[in-house]
Structures are given as C-alpha cells and as structure tokens.
Design goal:
Blueprint (H helix, E strand, L loop, with lengths): L2 E7 L7 H12 L3 E7 L5 H10 L4 E4 L4 H11 E3 L1 H6 L4 E5 L3 E5 L2 H12 L8 E5 L3 H12 L4 E5 L3 H17 L5 E5 L9 E6 L17 E9 L7 H8 L3 E3 L2 H16 L5 H12 L1
Parallel strand pairs: 1-2, 1-3, 4-6, 7-8, 7-10, 8-9, 10-11, 11-12
Antiparallel strand pairs: 3-5, 5-6
The protein binds 2'-monophosphoadenosine-5'-diphosphate.
2'-monophosphoadenosine-5'-diphosphate binds next to helix 6.
Amino acid sequence: MVDKYAVIGNPIVHSKSPLIHAAFAQQTGQAMSYEAILSPLDGFEAAVEALMASGYKGLNVTVPFKFEALKFASTRGKVNSCAERAGASNTLIFDANIGVIADNTDGVGLVNDITHNIKFEIRHKRVLVLGGGGAAFGILQPLVEAAPGSIVIANRTFAKADEAANRLAEIVKASNSRVSGLPKRFEELDGLQFDLIINSTSAGLTDSTLPISDSIFAEGCLAYDMMYGRETPFMAQARRNGAQVADGLGMLVEQAAEAFYLWRGVRPDTKPVMDKIRALAI
Ligand code: ATR
C-alpha cells in the first residue's frame, strides 16, 4: 500500500505540485501517491475530513484555503510556529497521535531558494517586501531568521503594510532578532535603495506596473518575484535597472521539498526537479 498525499485548492487544474512530488518520490524511492483535488469553495473542511477518513497522510493546501487549513488544524491537532506566524497553512500532516498538524513551508521555500539556489546572502542586507497580503505574511518569519539588516514592507493599501509591519515586530521580538522593520507607501520609497526586493503582490497577474521608482534597485540587487510562468512588469523594471532577477519557480519547488521532508523525513535534491519544471514551463 502506498501512502496517499494530495494538493487541495480551487482552482487546482494548473497545479504543478503533482509533477514535483512525483519526481521527488521517484528520486528518493518513496512509495507514495500525490494527486490534485478540487474542493468546493464552501466545502473545504468536509473535503479534508473525507480524505483523512480514506487514509491520506497529508495535504498541500493552496488558494483560497490556506486560512481555513490553519483554522481546521487549530481545533483538531496543532499549529506549528511557521503557520501560526504566517496566519496560514500550506501543508497539513495527518498524525495518528497528534491529529492534524498545520505547517507553512512557503517562507522557508523562498529563503532556501534565495540562499541555496541563487546563492544570495540575506544577512545584513536591506530588504524590501512589496505587498501586504497573505503571501507577504507567509514569508516574514523565515526572512527574519535569515538576519537581514532591515525589512521595509510597502503596500498600495497602507493599513495592510502597517499590519504586516506589526506582525514583523512581534516576530523580531519573539526571535530576539535585531532586524528593523518599517511600513511604507510606494511613493515613500523614493530616495531609498534595497539589496533584495521581493514582490509578493499579485499585480503581475494583470500585468500591472507597481508605482516604484527605478532608483530603488541598489548595486547588486536581487529582485525576486514570487510569481512564475511569466515575466512581470516588476521583473522587467528590475532587469532594466541592472538587478539580478528571479521568478517564484524555485520557491515553488523548495516549498514542496520542505513539505516532502515534513511528511517523509527525506530531503529531495531540488535542482533536477527545478530544471524539469522549468523546461516544461517554456
Ligand atoms: P496573497 O495572499 O497572494 O498575498 P492578497 O491577500 O489578495 O493575495 O494580496 C494581494 C497583494 O497584492 C496585496 O498586497 C495587494 O495590494 P492591496 O493590499 O492594496 O490590495 C497587492 N496588489 C494586487 N494588485 C496590485 C496592483 N495592481 N498594484 C499594487 N498592488 C497590488
């Protein structure tokens, strides 16, 4: 009997997770299956309960259920600190003793991609996070753990940047870190420069340009867009201004590797899988 896993979301048809996990399982010789499951928008809990009842060992959770997944685990098991800090869960583990464990591997995936694959050192650097939605919240704790010098969070709606900066301050305090954090409006970035700029907004989905100045890309800047599969206006602007540019495909594969490790206790080699997914995406 193989152990069963899946990614659950709505929509789900374009998910690359089944391909990625199949490649990990083959590479590491793990006897497991992994499929994509569409949940009705108003039926997430019932769908997860049915999967648990039929013996699934864990799930990846994607849009729009990451918040519900956290809530689900909080009443049926436990929530690990990464998920707690992110306010969302992308990985559920079904444990015979503890019940449902919620984790979040998105932020670790991002930081692992930046430090191990791109080999960009985050320590002491000036970091700018663009966006104040769930994607931004999810990366704050692992970013703080990477010990940058400062983190500025800029968002179109200032209240959300402010909320994210408050969350950041709690993380900094809890981890005894000395990272400074500030919320900003986009127009307040003029005159500042950053070494690492992470775009967590969904502006690229609609090909929208962000109102950021060309001068914010410092010498040697890494501009990282959490989206993948297309060149966003942010990536194009960064390229024009001499920055090194990365899309979110590495993060996608790294967050999957971290989930795979949580479930199976084995770390896959992400490089060949990343190459395979990138070749398919072109
Ligand atoms: P996610 O969970 O992916 O972060 P979200 O919570 O809907 O999704 O957040 C989307 C983010 O992209 C928000 O920060 C949003 O800005 P607002 O908070 O002002 O809505 C940002 N965003 C989306 N489209 C944008 C655009 N065209 N320009 C600037 N920011 C944009």
